[in-house]
Structure formats: C-alpha cells, structure tokens
Amino acid sequence: MDDANTWAGNLELVGGRLCLDFANTVDWHASDHPREWLTGFSDLAAWSRHAGALTEGQARSLVRAAESGAEEAASVLERAITLREALYRIFSAIAARRSVEPADLATLNTALATALMHLRVIPADEGFTWDWAAGQGELDRMLWPVAWSAARLLTSKDLDRVRECPGDGCGWLFLDTSKNRTRKWCSMESCGNRAKARRHYRKTHKQRASSARVAHTEP
C-alpha cells in the first residue's frame, strides 16, 4: 500500500505504546475542533501497518477484502473509532488522576474479549511468544493488538507514567519514560516549540509595553 497518500500512514508515533498511538489518530483531540485522520478503512489499515499492528501484506490483503465488503469495512471503522475514543478517555483520565468511566472500560473489555479469542502462544527462536491466529479477510484484526496493548498497559507498573500533552488543545497521549519523569510534551518539535514561541512572544510583548510606558512618562 502507498502510505504516502494518507496522513494516517505517516502520523508521528510518540505514544510509546500501541494503544496510546492509536488514541493519537486525532489531532487537537482536547480542543473543540479535532481533526480526524481515520476517515476510511484504508486509513485505518495504513495506520495499522505504519504502527506495526499489521504487516504490509496483511494491510494490503485487508484493503482488498474491504473493497468487496464495504458494509463490513464501514462497521469495523466505526468500531475502531468507538474503541479509540474510549481509550482516549480512559488514559486521559488516568493522566489527570481522574476516575475511569465504567462505560469506557466496558468498551475496551468488549474489544479485548474478541482479541483474546485469537491470541496464541507459538514457538520462537528462544522459547515462545505471543501471536495472532486469524483467517483471511478478518477486517478487525488490527484492533486485537490495540486492545491487548491497552489491557497490558492498564495492568502494568508503567501506568503512572501515562501523560497527556498540555499543548493548547493537543490532547496527545504518551508514556513518560524519561529518567526523572520530566517529559512534558508529546513532541518538542511541535507542541514544545509552539509553547516556547508563545512564551517568547509574551516576554517580548511585555518588555515592549514596559518600555513604551517608561518612554511615555519621561519628561
């Protein structure tokens, strides 16, 4: 698939966990004008390949299957967005030390129940590993590792490292893995630099205003 033609296939992966990156498939999530990047099933497949939830071959196969099953593909996209919004609210609440809504946890558990039916232990080069057992054309297979990632994070010791970017309206989620837990922004190149620019503007504006007042009061 040609991810160059879809923003979803090129989004920054700053979350540190698959479930957090999935929640970040909306820009300005915490604002009143969020921008949706999953506008069709092909976007969902492109992001899933980009984030490692699907291989390139799997993504291509699912896009072809979706072309002959448009109704099912639309249903999967709707379920994906419902899950994503529940995950955003869950981890946003955790980052703010608020209680998680039972309805959002129920949405995750529904997705998780489906995922666990396909989870398998298989031999690996050194011991065993997890894998997903799926037949051809199961259009929701990218949601299984997302739900599994969320369940594992929620039950891990890293849960208290979940953060929500404080950039104006940003709302992107990430895992703060810095040594002193001091990471503040989703990305210094985006929200971090915008905040620096705003601080610089306010400081310069204040200095100019102060200079103007002094000049005005001089005899």
Uncertain runs with pLDDT below 50, 5 residues or more? Answer: 195-216
Largest sheet: 2 strands, antiparallel
* Adjacency order of strands in the biggest sheet: 1-2
Q: CATH class of the largest domain, anyone?
A: Mainly Alpha
Q: Average pLDDT value? A: 87
CA-based shape? globular
Spell out the helices and strands N to C.
Answer: HEEHHHHEEHEEH
Can you tell me the CATH topology of the largest domain? Jann2411-like fold
> What do we call the CATH homologous superfamily of the largest domain?
Jann2411-like domain
Helix content: 40-55%
Please compute the radius of gyration using only Cα atoms.
21 Å
Distance linking N and C termini: 72 Å
Tally of separate helices: 7
CATH architecture designation of the largest domain: Orthogonal Bundle
Structural class: mainly alpha
Number of domains: 2
Report the β-strand fraction as a percent range.
Answer: 5-15%
Number of strands: 6
